[in-house]
Fold this sequence. Notes:
The structure holds 2 protein chains of 2 kinds. Chain A is of the alpha/beta class. Chain A has one domain (2-40, 69-539): 3-Layer(bba) Sandwich (FAD/NAD(P)-binding domain). Chain A is 24% helix and 18% strand. Chain A has 13 helices and 16 strands. In chain A, strand 13 and strand 14 form a beta hairpin. The longest helix of chain A is centred in the C-terminal third of the chain and has 20 residues, at 431-450. Residues 534-544 of chain A have low confidence and may be disordered. Chain B is mainly alpha-helical. Helices cover 48% and strands 0% of the residues of chain B. Chain B has 7 helices and no strands. In chain B, helix 4 crosses helix 5. Chain B is elongated and about 70 Å long. Iron/sulfur cluster binds next to loops of chain A.
Amino acid sequence: MSSDQTDVVIVGAGLAGGVTAARLTAAGLRVVCLEQGDWPDYDKARADFPDFEITADRYWARDPNVRRAPADYPVDDSTSDISALMWNGVGGGTVLYSAKWHRMTPSDFRVRSHDGVADDWPLSYEDLEPYYVEAERQFGVSGLAGDPAYPAGEGPPNPPVPIRASGRRMAKALNELGWHWWPGTNAISTRHYRMLNPCRQHAACMQGCPERAKASTDITHWPAAIERGADLRTGARVTRVLVRGDRATGVEYLDRRGALHKVEARAVIMCANGIGTPRLLLMSATAEHPDGLANSSGLLGKRLMMHPFGSVAGIFDEDLATHSGSWGQQIQSMHFYESDPSRGFVRGAKWGLQPTGGPLGLTRSYPWAQSREPMWFEHFHHTLARRFGHAPMWSLVAEDLPDERNTVTLSSEHVDSDGLPGAKLSYTVDENSKRLMEFHLARAVESFEAAGARETVVGPHVRSSGWHLMGTAVMGTDPARSVTDRFGRTHDIPNLFIFDSSTWVTSGGVNPAATQAALALWFSDALLRHGQLSRTDMRSGVTA
Amino acid sequence: MTDAPSGLDQSMLTDDEREAVYLLGETLIPEGSSGPSADQAAVATRFIDEFFAVRPDLHAGFRALLAEANLDHPRQWCERLERERPEDFSRLTFVIAGAYLLSPKARSWLNYAGQVGEPQDGSPQPEYAPGGLLDPVRARGPIYRPTDWRPAGGAA
Ligand SMILES: Cc1cc2nc3c(=O)[nH]c(=O)nc-3n(C[C@H](O)[C@H](O)[C@H](O)COP(=O)(O)OP(=O)(O)OC[C@H]3O[C@@H](n4cnc5c(N)ncnc54)[C@H](O)[C@@H]3O)c2cc1C
Ligand code: SF4
């Protein structure tokens, strides 16, 4: 077994891993990052080719159980209402994400105080605000400052993506209804900005952006981190975190040929996402830590949140060119975001108006699979022509409350290509989420009706929508009720950190990347500021 | 299903299979008042091959479906598949419609040039300037729920 030493080893080169590596190398730390996958191959981005729609889901498939690339591990979702989606490679989920970018609101951090359910975060919107601003610069976010759904402050560095005919149409309707909307905020650049190019509105953002317009950490963070000395090793699957007593000493990993290596480090930072992180910490159990590492609270792998997702499309007589546009969102609405007890549920959802893309996609998937209008046989041309270019869609991201029965555990049936156990999900969409979704879908239908849509198509519960994975190593102040402190440091093992969204206390009702990036910066700065990489760690870690 | 003899290109369809593609194509996408049928778009004769040239991974599953299709009653067979095995029906229609939409005839019927996009340069948009669509939203003022932050006692 080969062995080497570093200051910090990061597990996972996705969103949190990229942001963290860039920050820590800028501060002069030696960083090794181990990533089980590879760099994305943008030669396989086919937006400009006639076969785009038929090849899009091959290389760029979202569900690891469908994609089955060598880096993927099985995620048994047979006892989950939602399937988990992810990209296992440099850039992580940001390679596939549609780059809708939302800060959480102040109340998202205070759910217990406001609504009497779940828990408050041990930090606030105000704590994160400067980090949001910084993250928006790093990701070249486009949008407009001054959204009344948020406290006043600095906005994103680039102007918003075009509103397009569909956004204009819906904005007018929301104005008539007196409902909030705002120009879409996206991690999609509208100009030449640092390493990013202007978006060309292909509506192909989730299948490999061919323009380098979408900010993913393989583009925005890793090249700079590597330039500063980060040692990013791909095809490196971490098999366990090593501990001695209550200190982490490093990790072991398998390379592509199956050879085992060891990296000793003064600190280990988990950035393997809301499923990969608990999976690895559970796999790292020892006699001293029989229930997995950092699990004295028993909460590791519990409180999984995945944001139930719904969608509503409106079909208009006019051609609104909805096959194109940043995907992403043209406009967004948070009118029904905050809790209103009279609705019979707590919390809310954010709406993003987006294109619906090319014709093949309009014959399947959400929300079309739920349409009452027949698609095939003598109906084919009529139905398809009515949808194509005429159908904007609201996508609804709903807050789900943490529940200890929603879990990530180790699969006893499925193993990855290295023979390591896969993950098993147990997740039930609860009553609050169901009522919340029903309410929001009904309002979204109303908005299309107000805009003059001839028909609305509702996708009430999209199963294949677990793009947001949160809560499985909750942060908090009480070690008996949480896994990490508010700086991502595990209570049990002081030089083992979790910087991904496993730490989330509640899920908010917005897409998570903005908060994940801001938190990775917040955690990184705390690690640097508190000098948690002391020589003691070096002694008790590497040389122990 | 007719197996191609070993040594022959396994990605090709046999004549019988091609006939099945023709029949199922004309059933799922018959000639419409505005658009071409699957046959007019050359699905069975050309674009099915172009489809499998880029999606060889779907070939075996599709051939298995062809092998069980009741070609005397293709409409009833398709409707039953849709009702009873929606995932298989989805696989079938993905291939047939996917091949169809590769055809320039079908694309020109929809006036679809592909996901070629439209350039933009981040220019200011009049909707967002004073006097534009955002005025009423701005006029209503903040809608977020402010918090009076203090460290959470006893929470998580
Ligand atoms: C299809 C899709 C669409 C999305 N759309 C949006 C959106 O519009 N807006 C938004 O805000 N968010 C969106 N998201 C979510 C966002 O991309 C993720 O929340 C984010 O990427 C998670 O960041 P992370 O660092 O926690 O994990 P990831 O980005 O998932 O990275 C984790 C990395 O760890 C690696 N890893 C795991 N285990 C190991 C191991 N044992 N050894 C080595 N490496 C390991 C993985 O290979 C992976 O690369 C989307 C996600 C998906 C999948
Ligand atoms: S719409 Fe913009 S961000 Fe999306 S794929 Fe095209 S250029 Fe990239």
